[in-house]
Task: structure prediction
Amino acid sequence: MALRRPPRLRLCARLPDFFLLLLFRGDLAGRAEILGKTSLKIWNVTRRDSALYRCEVVARNDRKEIDEIVIELTVQVKPVTPVCRVPKAVPVGKMATLHCQESEGHPRPHYSWYRNDVPLPTDS
Result:
């Protein structure tokens, strides 16, 4: 899954030595706030909150107008039991395809196959 553009929020805090600017947009409205002086708190985090977040800081007495940092947030979602499709019977000499898939896990889970508790090699 590609990361979305940094969320656009607008929240300012003036502190004695610097000015903090956080930009908020979209579904974060009403779910995010500045916690303390310099932290961003997001409630009810979902997979859609996986994104690049940017924090901009303006120092009043610095030659540089804006300093910023981009932070990558990855929200992890536990995978669920996979749904599997397995043929009931396969005639000798024919091909059998065993298919298992899970759609909830994030980042996407890794799949491993075993035959009689022995790992099967993966295709390269």
